[in-house]
Amino acid sequence: MSKKNLALLMEWLRPAGIGVAVYFAYSLGTDAITQFHRMGPFVVLLMSGTVAFESLFLGETAAEKIGYQPDRAYQVQSGLANAATAVTALLVYLLDWGRYADATIVTVMLLFFTFSAANHAVTAIKAKNRKAVNLLRPVMVLFLLGLLLPAMVKALQQ
User: Fold this and answer.
1) Domain of residue 34, residue span
2) Which of 41, 64, 140, 155 supports an S-S bond with 32, CB 3.0-4.6 Å?
3) Measured between alpha carbons, how far is residue 46 from residues 40, 53, 77 in Å?
4) Tally of helices (H runs) and strands (E runs) in the chain
């Protein structure tokens, strides 16, 4: 599979994976804490993990897809930060550190992607970067916020 096709696959893997995570969280979870524990860390693992993979292994292709200039040093640094977030989400889940750890790692991911979405919006306006993938980043963040924040608040209130 070419790097371009693999980068495109990442764009479809994220929403599909989130759909699967939400389905299993609500179909197998009996209460808000269990549902959020099954959904939150998996969404973080999926989002941060795929971004890390793209940054570390698909650098130039990923930059081109989104309309950015490739900058390997920055992409590697950003990829490693996302990898750290993904690995932490996996640890939070596997070691069952509890709802506050679930909420913390989800919050870290949401903050990163919210700040990143603001950056994408700025490049859409200032640099006239009208690539679809760039324009979809802020929309995806709104979707993630709408999906995860209510579940997180419900889990933390129990």
Assistant:
1) 3-157
2) 155
3) 10, 10, 19
4) 6, 0
Residue in the block written with tokens 């570390």: 56
CB atoms within 10 A of CB 16: 12
Q: How far apart are CA 51 and CA 145, in angstroms?
A: 18
Q: What is the pLDDT along the chain (158 residues), one digit of tens a residue?
A: 898 899 889 989 999 999 999 999 999 988 999 999 999 999 999 999 999 999 999 888 888 888 888 777 888 999 999 999 999 999 999 999 999 999 999 999 999 999 999 999 999 999 999 988 889 999 999 999 999 999 999 999 99
Provide DSSP, 93-147.
Answer: HHTT--HHHHHHHHHHHHHHHHHHHHHHHHHHHHS----HHHHHHHHHHHHHHHH
Question: Taken in order 108, 130, 72, 56, is the CA torsion positive or negative?
Answer: positive
Would you say 143 and 21 are in contact if contact means Cβ atoms under 8 Å apart?
A: no
Q: Model-level pTM?
A: 0.92
